[in-house]
Amino acid sequence: MATALITGAAARLGRATAEALHRDHQVVIHYRHSARAALELVDTLNQRRPGSAAAVQSNLASADDCQQMADAAQACFGEVSVLVNNASAFYPTPIGGASEQQWEELMGSNLKAPFFLSQALAPALAEQGGCIVNLADIHADKPMPGHTIYSAAKAGLVMMTKSLALELAPRVRVNAVAPGAILWPEQESEGYNKEQILARIPMQRSGDPTDIARTVRFLVADAPYITGQVIAVDGGRSLNI
């Protein structure tokens, strides 16, 4: 059975994605700080199918972290066929008050870690004829006010998706999913007013984490001739930004 590694999989979109892929994959649940949630998810999945889920911890702060994480993930089940780069920091950085530490964190989690983890796992993915799915954002194309660094990092992730799709073909497919209004931030911030956003979504509602998870699973399991693409799952929101 193929193995999928999902970063940031203890909660929210990562958890939904892990549960969707677990239907026909062994899953490696990556977490940074959410050990309890990650281990509870692993226990739940292993109750459904014994020996089918494992957890690994990493801050993914450096290239060495990513290599160690890749090695640990492969050790869980002997191979990795699917990499889902989901882990992400998100918060506003209004110009004039942004710090270098914020730059490092937002660029690190949204762009640096996905690149170096993809690089570390590229040989294993090629051996299995596997794939990478990156979690981008509709604001990679249309910037969100007050979120310059985050938007720039996601824009870089979109270009990385397209570039790696060329570089790793034909053995590894690389695609991205760009969520719209799915889960709301815990704290409202400039440019992210819930009522204003909902009013501009053609589908007139927010999405559900399963909408993202199903799209990731489609790209993993049912799209052997799709690579280098970014699929917006946003209820039409990107048409009306």
From TrEMBL:
The record lists the membrane-crossing segments as: none
Mind telling me which Gene3D superfamilies this protein's record contains?
NAD(P)-binding Rossmann-like Domain
- Return the CDD domains for the record: PR_SDR_c
Q: Which Pfam families did the record assign?
A: adh_short_C2
Its EC top class is oxidoreductase
One GO molecular-function entry: pteridine reductase activity
> Among its keywords, does the record have Chloroplast?
no
Family matches, as InterPro entries: NAD(P)-bd_dom_sf, Sc_DH/Rdtase_CS, SDR_fam
Q: Which PROSITE patterns match?
A: ADH_SHORT
Record's protein name: Pteridine reductase
